């Protein structure tokens, strides 16, 4: 997990997001508190719960972008979902517990990618050896790595001189994946069935003619996969989700009871009541084992145009103690958005036009006019 200070986190977010300082500070402190908690002894650590966040602001002011950038900084399991995609338990659709299952999958992918990256140098060496064995078959009793010829070919291989040479080499054939159409809410069961059927048909090696460049990539992936311990990844993923997992839930205002609507709305209020134990802390069953949600950080957001945060059920309001209001964007904000962030829109279009041999220039007046039009459209729609 990232050990950046709140000041460093805000500074990094400033490179991509204009304004909204309060929201940046709130998520920065929340992320830093995750790191602080992990420095404590086990007994005290178990007593400290995350302070979940509710971000309030109109569409397009940066709520989702803050979450997206935070995911890259966190180096922790992260998932973004929309509250409207879920239904109350007992109704057709996805239940809220699938959030945790998806978070575990995200953690496994994050850890697997990290392990593969660590194993990459060894995997490349092994892949090179297999290619050299195909180009220069090793005679019985001969030292394969110490001959001058082999070292010469290894040098040529690394310099790309052999990229277009065709070789015959044994490659693993990918497992046959069975596509099973899942009814809403039963995606987990079908994924388990797919895994079961895939394991019944193990992958086999097959001789194939391929050029050296493509073979090196395929073999490197194969060798890296062999160096990764899936059992360790699964156990680490469970711990990572429970201790450092972050969930961003958007469109919370859409499941709040609207003030001008009388009576109970089962679909809206039911989802809130299902979210409550998840945010409070509960055990969720996944195919990798039980996951405790007590220390997962939940960051929620919504525009709240037609409803107010107080329209959420009281218990859920109490579990979102930190509230941050994001400001509507001004013309000056749009001007800064067009020019200041890393890879700004003007910079992107300059690079795109350069591919056609054109030099695109944005004058200050032009940027101001674009910002004014964007602000007017944003206000009207």
UniProtKB/TrEMBL annotation:
The UniProt record lists the keyword Protease: yes
Alphabetic keyword roster: ATP-binding, Chaperone, Cytoplasm, Hydrolase, Nucleotide-binding, Protease
Keyword Transmembrane helix on entry: no
Subcellular location: Cytoplasm
GO cellular component, one term: HslUV protease complex
Primary site of residence: cytoplasm
GO BP field: proteolysis involved in protein catabolic process
InterPro entries tied to this protein: AAA+_ATPase, ATP-dep_Clp_protease_ClpX, ATPase_AAA_core, HslU, P-loop_NTPase
Domain AAA+ ATPase: 49-326
Residue ranges the record marks as coiled coil: none
SMART domains (UniProt xref): AAA
GO molecular function, one term: peptidase activity
Spans traversing the lipid bilayer: none
Family statement: Belongs to the ClpX chaperone family. HslU subfamily.
Protein name: ATP-dependent protease ATPase subunit HslU
Gene name, Swiss-Prot/TrEMBL: hslU
């Amino acid at each position: 997990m990232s050990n950046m200070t709140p000041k460093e986190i805000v500074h990094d977010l400033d490179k991509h997001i204009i304004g909204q300082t309060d929201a940046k500070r709130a998520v920065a402190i929340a992320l830093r508190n995750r790191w602080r908690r992990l420095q404590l002894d086990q007994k005290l650590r178990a007593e400290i719960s995350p302070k979940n966040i509710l971000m309030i602001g109109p569409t397009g002011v940066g709520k989702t972008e803050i979450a997206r950038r935070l995911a890259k900084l966190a180096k922790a399991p992260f998932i973004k979902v929309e509250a409207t995609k879920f239904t109350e338990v007992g109704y057709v659709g996805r239940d809220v517990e699938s959030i945790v299952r998806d978070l575990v999958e995200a953690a496994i992918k994050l850890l697997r990618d990290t392990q593969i990256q660590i194993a990459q140098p060894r995997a490349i060496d092994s892949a090179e050896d297999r290619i050299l064995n195909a180009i220069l078959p090793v005679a019985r009793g001969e030292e394969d790595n110490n001959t001058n010829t082999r070292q010469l070919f290894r040098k040529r291989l690394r310099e790309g001189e052999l990229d277009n040479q065709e070789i015959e080499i044994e490659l693993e054939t990918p497992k046959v994946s069975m596509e099973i159409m899942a009814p809403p809410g039963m995606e987990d069961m079908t994924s388990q069935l797919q895994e079961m059927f895939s394991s019944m048909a193990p992958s086999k090696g097959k001789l194939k003619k391929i050029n050296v460049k493509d073979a090196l990539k395929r073999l490197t992936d194969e060798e890296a996969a062999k160096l990764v311990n899936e059992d360790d990844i699964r156990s680490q993923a469970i711990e990572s989700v429970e201790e450092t997992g972050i969930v961003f839930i958007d469109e919370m205002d859409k499941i709040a009871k609207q003030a001008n609507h009388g009576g109970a709305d089962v679909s809206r209020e039911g989802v809130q009541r299902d979210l409550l134990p998840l945010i409070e802390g509960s055990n969720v069953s996944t195919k990798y084992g039980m996951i405790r949600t007590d220390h997962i950080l939940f960051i929620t957001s919504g525009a709240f145009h037609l409803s107010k945060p107080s329209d959420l059920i009281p218990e859920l309001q109490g579990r979102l103690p930190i509230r941050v209001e994001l400001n509507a964007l001004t013309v000056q904000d749009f001007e800064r958005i067009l020019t200041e962030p890393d890879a700004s829109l003007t910079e992107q279009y300059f690079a795109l036009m350069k591919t056609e041999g054109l030099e695109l220039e944005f004058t200050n007046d032009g940027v101001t006019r674009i910002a004014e039009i964007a602000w007017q459209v944003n206000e009207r729609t």
